[in-house]
Amino acid sequence: MASGIIVTGGAGFIGSTLLEALLRAGRAPLVCLDNFNDYYDPAVKRRNIRDAQSVGAVTVVEGDICDPAACDRAADAAGDLDCIVHLAARAGVRPSVDDPPLYARVNNVGTANMLELARRRKARRFVLASTSSVYGNCPNVPFSEDEVLLRPISPYAASKLGCELMAHTYHHLFDLSVICLRFFTAYGPRQRPDMAIHRFVRLMLAGEELPVFGDGETSRDYTYIDDIVAGVAAAVDATAGFEIVNLGNSSTVTLNDMVATIERVLGMEARVNRLPKRPGDVEHTWADVSKARRLLGYEPATDFEAGVRAFVDWFRARFPDAAGSPGS
């Protein structure tokens, strides 16, 4: 039997795009483990996975990573287990401030379940999705994986740092090969509707105000989905002991510049509603990707404005009723 790959959260933004990339690379069997929760419309996720399945065979196991029986069903479907790509998580900085126990349960218990599954089923590799949020408001930029001043400022970020520590423990105790990938603000087609670029495009096309928190000078290292997925796919094939690796674009865009870029792409002016800064939001993110280049052959290739144009093209095709505004 061929060696299988489990992608948790495989119906999400990054997961479904990764499954398509793996299918195009001839990888099989592939298993998506997803609980299709209502953090955002489950119908969006079901369409994502149908799009992936239009490229090739993906077995979908509908279940929760916090349920060991669901994890076992996914492993049974995968057969001889080559790799677990653990993308499933409770996402979102701001919602985590309102419900820290939920984030601890889903992210930390769920990750422990997947690591234990990898140990019991003798998976060869484990790829863990982490986040740039673990760096908090670290003053040393660009952020390096060797940084010791990690001070998360949201429950989401703290839970993901805990996932990294648990993964290291499994590597130390059971010699599991683990790569933790710290994603820096992924965007592009299928981006979650709660994320800024998706939300702002949707609001502008509807003629509504954009909620901009703070003075707009916070900045993010926006990373196009194809670049993120190329890094994840490389990690699937890497045997690395234990490594933490940044996946970013290694450049920064302020919130104000992001809005200006969307205005240029849409050919319309935004109406901005300035609001107080929200707790949990970091000031800046900026990835040092030299380690990713060295270990994974990673080379981000997508300019920010080109990536926004690609997202807008996808959005207009996916949501034609929202696309009849000026500039379309």
Précis, in short:
It is built from 11 helices and 13 strands. By secondary structure, it is of the alpha/beta class.
Task: Report on this structure.
The longest helix has 21 residues. With 328 residues, the chain is of the alpha/beta class. It has a domain of 204 residues: Rossmann fold (3-Layer(aba) Sandwich). The termini are far apart. A seven-stranded parallel sheet has the order 3-2-1-4-5-6-11, sandwiched between helices. Strands 7-10 form a two-stranded parallel ribbon. It has a two-stranded parallel sheet with strand order 8-13.
CATH topology of the domain at 4-184 and 225-247: Rossmann fold
Query: Overall 3D geometry?
Result: globular
User: Which structural class is indicated by helix and strand composition?
Assistant: alpha/beta
Please name the fourth-level CATH homologous superfamily of the domain at 4-184 and 225-247: NAD(P)-binding Rossmann-like Domain
Strand order of the largest sheet: 3-2-1-4-5-6-11
Oligomer: single chain
Binned strand content: 15-25%
Rg, Cα atoms, Å: 19 Å
Q: Low-confidence segments, ≥5 residues, pLDDT <50? A: 324-328
**Helix content class:** 40-55%
Biggest β-sheet strands, sense, barrel: 7 strands, parallel
**Secondary structure tally: strands:** 13
Mean pLDDT: 95
| Second rung of CATH, namely the architecture of the domain at 4-184 and 225-247 | 3-Layer(aba) Sandwich
Task: Output the CATH class name of the domain at 4-184 and 225-247.
Answer: Alpha Beta
The H-and-E topology, N to C, reads as: EHEHEHEHHEHEEHEEEHEEHEHH
Number of helices: 11
How far the N terminus sits from the C terminus, by CA atoms, comes to 50 Å
